[in-house]
Design goal:
There is one protein chain. By secondary structure, the chain is mostly helical. It has a single domain, classed as Rhodopsin 7-helix transmembrane proteins (Rhopdopsin 7-helix transmembrane proteins), CATH 1.20.1070. It contains 11 helices and 3 strands, in the order βαααβαααβααααα. The N terminus is likely disordered.
Length: 311
């Protein structure tokens, strides 16, 4: 059958994790639970930071923004999947797929940029503690956040617009639970060379550049910590980075696992499960990592809960 670029009539079918009807209920409740935990956990972090004046610092400013982005990140994929399971439908419209792809890319890049900004914040705090408040002032933090948004919007806009030039057949089956850029591009019936170049270039520049910046920051942090004479001082300095480092390892580790699994195996179900790790599980675990390892966050959460209980 000849391929046609029927933009208004093309629809995509999200095949999800399994075709077996008996597993659909289990998948629905599992992902609904994880989604609710993600939203609740990240909202608590945002409320704790905003309600406690002691947490009005650059580190927690970026953390609250990361929590907001994680809520949005998960909300681009999971609700649609849950609706499809409940309605026994796999359909997502062409417009819906492009929109989902745009916002997914937007929040992925925001996550990457915020993790890099938080690494820079920890670098300044440990390597230049006496100049920390001068360097990381409110205006600079706001400008850094704005830069993250600008980069994310421009990248997601560029990559989404390049998809619009592709031709698709009337019914395209995506072996995934959301419109993942790489999957959609390689299901097109037209030449995808430009799309591949843009996608890989953006991955190298943004994800690779941010990761290189994080590694550079932590190499200087480790070097500074080694110069601290007391063991207690070393522990205190490293403890301020432990949560962020855990989140970085979790995010990049699961994202790398997705692309390695897709390169090694042709099993689409394995790739979809691997994708769920960084699109659903990672945003869900972030609040736990920060709250369990951070005394300030635990104190703020306890104070917030007490206020709500007494109120």
């Amino acid at each position: 059958m000849a391929a046609e670029n029927l933009t208004g009539m093309t629809q995509f079918l999200l095949l999800g994790f399994s075709e077996e009807p008996e597993l659909q209920s289990l998948i629905f409740w599992l992902f609904l639970s994880m989604y609710l935990i993600t939203v609740l956990g990240n909202l608590l972090i945002i409320l704790a930071v905003s309600s406690d004046s002691h947490l009005h610092t650059p580190m927690y400013f970026f953390l609250s923004n990361l929590s907001f982005v994680d809520i949005c990140f998960t909300s681009t994929t999971v609700p649609k999947m849950l609706v499809n399971i409940q309605t026994h439908s796999k359909v997502i419209t062409y417009e819906g797929c492009i929109t989902q792809m745009y916002f997914f890319l937007l929040f992925v890049v925001m996550d990457i940029c915020l993790l890099a900004a938080m690494a820079y914040d920890r670098y300044v705090a440990i390597c230049y503690p006496l100049h920390y408040t001068v360097i990381m002032h409110a205006q600079f933090c706001g400008q850094l956040l704005l830069l993250c948004w600008v980069i994310s919007i421009l990248d997601s806009l560029l990559e989404s617009l390049t998809v619009l030039r592709l031709s698709f057949c009337k019914n395209v089956k995506i072996p995934h639970f959301f419109c993942e850029l790489n999957q959609v591009i390689h299901l097109a019936s037209s030449d995808t060379f430009l799309n591949d170049m843009v996608m890989y270039f953006a991955a190298v520049i943004l994800a690779g550049g941010a990761f290189a910046g994080i590694l550079c920051s932590y190499s200087k942090i480790v070097s500074s910590i080694r110069r601290i004479s007391s063991a207690q001082g070393k522990y205190k300095a490293f403890s301020t980075c432990a949560s962020h480092l855990s989140v970085v390892c979790l995010f990049y580790g699961t994202a790398l696992g997705v692309y390695l699994s897709s390169a090694v195996t042709q099993n689409s179900q394995s790739t979809a499960i691997a994708s769920a790790m960084y699109t659903v599980v990672t945003p869900m675990l972030n609040p736990f990592i920060y709250s369990l390892r951070n005394k300030d966050i635990k104190r703020a959460l306890k104070s917030l809960i007490e206020k709500k209980t007494m109120g």
